Every structure is written in C-alpha cells, then in structure tokens.
Amino acid sequence: MAKRKKIKVNKEEAARRVKEIWPILKKTYPDAKIALEFKDPLELLISTILSAQCTDVRVNMVTKDLFKKYKSAADWADADLKQIEEGIRSTGFFRNKAINIKGACTKIVEQYGGKVPGTIEELVTLPGVGRKTANCVLGDAFGVPGITCDTHVIRLSRRLGLSENSDPVKLEFDLAEIVPKRNWTAFSHLVITHGRNICTARKPNCRECPIAKYCPSANNPDLW
Ligand code: SF4
Predict the structure, then answer these.
(1) At CA 20, angle to CA 16 and CA 25, rounded to 5?
(2) Residues having CB within 6 Å of any atom of ligand 1
(3) In the annotation, is 170 catalytic?
(4) ∠ CA(26), CA(29), CA(31), 5° rounding?
(5) How is domain 11-33+147-223 classified at the CATH fold level?
(6) Is 132 a catalytic residue?
(7) Model pLDDT for residues 110-152, shown as the tens digit of each residue
(8) C-beta separation of 15 from 23 below 8 A
(9) Which CATH architecture has domain 41-142?
C-alpha cells in the first residue's frame, strides 16, 4: 500500500482553519453531543471504560441493565469480578474492563469518598482511565472543558491539517493551543459527529462536506 502523504502543519494556519470550520460544523450539527447514555459522572466513567473497542450503541444496551444493578461506586467495588465480567462480556476485552472498573471504583470509594473526582490529575490515577476517558468525563459530566482524542478526532485533525501528531496525548496538546478552551468539549463532539457522518475512515464524502473549502485534503485520496 502506498504511503500516505503528510500535510505540513503551520500553527497559525491551523488556528485560522479552526475558526473557519467552527461555525459551519456548529450549524451543520446543532445537536452534536456524546452518544453514551448516563445520569452522573460515575455512569459516564463506566460507560467510557466500556466503550474502548466497542460501539456506543452496544455500550448503551449493556449499561441499561447494569446501572440498575450497580448504583454506586461501592456497589461496583464490592461486586464479584466474575459477575461484572458476565454483565459486560458483549463489549469485548471484558476481563480487563472488569478489572479496571472494579479497581477504579475501589479507589473512588477508598480515596474520594465514593465520588468520582473532578480533575484530570486525579482521574488519570484511576485504573483504566487515560486522558481520553478523563477528558470525556470532565467535559460531559462535570462541564469542565476537555478535548477527547478518539479515532475520529485523530483522523480528522490530520486530514484538516490541524496537527501532525497521531499520538492522542500530543494531539490533545496541539488542539488545546488552537481551539479556544471554552469550546474544547463541543469541538470534540462536532469533529466526532462529522467523522461519523461525512469524513469517515474508509471513504470521506468530500463532495458533500460543508467544510471542504477549508480542508487541505479535500478530494485528495493521497492525504486520507
Ligand atoms: S473535505 Fe473530505 S477529507 Fe476534508 S473534512 Fe471534508 S470529508 Fe474530510
């Protein structure tokens, strides 16, 4: 397979591009929001751990019953590991996920009085919680701005020439410099929604893309 060409990224240009595409994406996807269903930070934390290598639709199906059974961090911490595994089996990688969920909830009970902590520094100390999960919980459950670098954000940032980094942590810091902080969470949702609808991994639909005018990869398969 031919090696994909890289777009040289200039920070000022990238920041300008963000400004240009922001109103268009907002207008195109006025309802863009997280697809995981949750009532509180704990439910979102569990759902986000479960969503690794799994669709949000599947996670929502699984958590519908689980969240009736396990209502608090203590419920998860005290639960039998095998029972957690059974409950989440269909989300894949269930053994690791069960260990992480039980471990995270045990720490939440022991160190944070049963409440999910609300800072990135604390969240990333929980088992199974990296910056992506932490930012998702911060942004959507606590209302603290967070950039969620999932597969869509990584792909679109490259195609749009916003960053040369595909490492999620480096990309997060690149985007943090060019996206106004107040928009971090919403920007993530807009880009993810655009990645699901138009700029898909296999076949971006540049012909119908509302931001094609500003995209350096538009109609150029060598850059996809
Ligand atoms: S123009 Fe094409 S490559 Fe660029 S964002 Fe739109 S769909 Fe993606």
Answers:
(1) 135
(2) 159-160, 198-199, 204-206, 209, 211-212, 215, 217-218
(3) no
(4) 105
(5) Endonuclease Iii, domain 2 (1.10.1670)
(6) yes
(7) 999 999 999 999 999 999 999 999 999 999 999 999 999 999 9
(8) no
(9) Orthogonal Bundle (1.10)
